[in-house]
Design a protein that fits this description.
The complex is a heterodimer.
Chain A lengths: L12 H10 L8 H8 L3 H26 L3 H9 L1 H33 L6 H18 L1 H13 L4 H4 L20 H12 L8 H4 L10 H25 L2 H5 L4 H6 L10 H32 L3 H18 L3 H38 L1
Helix pairs in contact in A: 1-7, 1-11, 1-14, 2-3, 2-9, 3-9, 3-11, 3-16, 4-5, 4-16, 5-14, 5-15, 5-16, 6-14, 6-15, 7-14, 14-15
Chain B lengths: L7 H14 L5 E5 L6 E6 L5 H14 L5 H7 L6 E3 L2 H9 L2 E6 L6 E5 L28 H9 L7 E8 L5 E8 L5 H12 L9 H8 L11 E3 L2 H10 L2 E5 L5 E4 L17 H30 L7 H11 L6 H21 L2 H21 L5 H14 L5 H9 L1 H29 L1 E2 L2 E2 L49
Antiparallel strand pairs in B: 1-2, 2-4, 3-5, 4-5, 6-7, 7-9, 8-10, 9-10, 11-12
Helix pairs in contact in B: 5-8, 9-13, 9-15, 11-12, 11-13, 11-15
The chains are: A mainly alpha, B alpha+beta.
Chain lengths: ~350, ~500
Amino acid sequence: MRVPIQEKVSTYMVFYLITSVQVGVGILSYQSQINKHAGHDAWMSVLIAGLFIHITIWMIYVVLKGVDGDLVEVNKQVFGKVIGSVFTILYMLYLVLGATIVIRIYIEVVQVWMFPQMKVWSILFLILPLVFYIINGSFRVVVGICFLGFIVPAFLMTSFLFPLQYSNLNLVLPVFDHTFQEFLLSANEAALSFIGISVLMIYYPFIKEKEQSQKWAHFGNLTTTFIYTVLAIITFTYYNQPQLSSLKWPTLDMWKIIEMPFVARFEYAGISTWFLVILPNLTLFLWAASRMMYRQFQVSQQKSIVLFLIAVFIGCFFMETREELEKVTKVFSMFGRGILYVYIPFIFLTYCLLRKGRRK
Amino acid sequence: MKKRSLPTRKKNALSSFLADLENRSDFTYLNIKKEFVVHIGYYNSVTDHEQLQSKFIPYIKHLSFRSVQELHNILPAGDIHLLHDPEKIDDLMLKGYVMIYCGESPEECLLFPLPVFKSRQISIPEVEFSVVGPKEAFVESIDTNINLVRKRIPSPQLKFKELHVGDLTQTKVCVAYIEGVTNKENVNTVVQRIGDIQIDQVIDSSYIQQIISDDKNSPFPQLLDTERPDRIAAILSEGKVAIFVDNSPHVLIGPTTLVEFFSAFEDYFLNWTIASIFRLIRLFAVFFSILSTPIYVAVLTHHYEMIPKALLGTLVSSRSQVPFPPILEAIILELTIELLREAGARLPTKVGQTIGIVGGIVIGTASVEAGLTSNVLLIFVALAALASFTTPVYKMGNTIRLIRFPFLITAHVWGLLGISISICYIMAHLLRLKSLGRPFLEPIYPFRFKDLKDAFIRLPFSMAKNRPLEVRSNKPPRLNPGEGRDNK
């Protein structure tokens, strides 16, 4: 499987591919999820989770460098043709489900914060053609959206500095006030914010200097870990723990206090701009799914995107209410954890054993 | 001799062609020698009369010759043809050649070039005016235009590839590039695309621009057009390709990038700090011009909570009398501005000024006083229109003004979210666009740090030692090592 050079993207773009897929809807709400176990110390759990992701990235690179192909190839070599294709299809479903959940959660945020009366389909009609337009371009366009989706909304980072004027450092003290087990349990929650990285296994052949891209992947993960940690500390010093636990979207609540001479209620601008952060998630997930479809069944990407977009559209209707959405999200996070804790380590170990066997 | 043994059929064809010429209204026949029949024929619309009457005919009269073959050997000039094919003869005469033949039924005719070019004088650039810097602009004649560039780059490496486009017009198109600097791939793309053109007429370079663009449906121009020879000289030495089209005062440049459309050429004549700030102001103007009215509509329709208390009073007092929703108010005002612009563009300058006064002052003030629009929006719309005129390239200015309307509609329906999704649409479109196969959004994406030296800001010339990466020049350093020092 060769990817033509004009389809390939620069090596350092892996940085943006990693960060843009990790930062998504999760960052709006993760603070009140991770503090369940480790409380005000949970920001350290973010660091633990980030470290764990570094190890995962390393494992992925070991496998990909050895196989020199994408996930479909890896599945074939590790599991054989039949079982391998089952895993490929499962992963494909995971990606489409991921895209559906991301878009549905974003629409929920919009419904709760901006337009309570807005119908889901009305906004899907605006977003889905855009996703098609982007993916139909080429992988370069998808990466371009990831790049701009990181650069353009970067100014929002400064908005997280506003709550600092009301923050109280005593709220995160004393440090190490929880057991190691609690730290790990919170890290388990925090890991959910990072799980997009496994898409790396699909776009890997599209990178110009594949082997050199590993440092960019790690650097990207480092950046996200930094953002998540800093934002967690800001949140924990701004809210006290009981108050934080009662909030669904602490990041958005913090935006509410921002006031500038020309704009009040900053969250409206913030949520709108956040679409630029969501879009890379959507496009990259769906691109990856259609790419796998092409690799596994030789279905043209154009056709499979249409199929997946219809699936996303219908999927959003199955998650009409908050409860349904939460249920599906739970399934999705289990899926994600399975990939992170079982699937990737398993592939890694099997691959190492296979390689050892081959050497002998 | 060989030439004498022509078939009589051809001879007849030529004779009947010559007889037919007399019926053409702008064709003139002269018989100049008394002792011996010498005919001179020419189209008076394309031939230089004065030269013919005062110099050419007296000169011919003093020569002694018996046949056109003899004359062919005597005449001290190149580019003289002896032809017997009526079609070829007619072709050349239409380009301003004078036909000479001896006797009543000749076998061959001699064609001597005496063309006349009626063209405008070189004047100052009107579309891309600059206060400082050269004040020459291209004219309609391609030879004059090439001359204007040649004198700026007196180098044998400057090459022109000539093509003819248009079944009917046979318009001369010249692709200019500097050999050894310009990437051959770019030249080949241009030449191939122009060669593939299937059209009967090419009236202006914008025909070529539209046909060879990478995405013909895009509202964004993908080739830059300029009327400044100095700009062409500059981009040629950067390693880009220029396309000259006969009868067009605008020369096309490719490959280009989006950012290039917002850099006025005057930037290079000013100190780099000043020029950079002007460029940033211009870029800000673009965003302001696209987004200000849609944001007004979005905020006043959906997100009035976003207005701070201090500002609320001003807005309420200005809008309390207005009976329309913000979107209607905005569209009416935007259309008024567009109408004024369109009216001003089609009218003579002096009437145009009057239109500006009537539109800007009378309609504006009256509509606010009548309570049809709020004066806050009027300020926004007027500023946005003003900002859109800062775009140095006219065609890009049009694009900027028109993409505001879809933004207005999405802003009305989906509020700020609609605006940000529209921005994503534009972004995706720009990411997909290419100019001669090169990415249009360069140096933003693909991100090339080195090309940022001449994008949003313009760094001093000493920093620009290399040609932009975007053109994939064959010779990236602008100077040969040591070459700059020789001139000291």
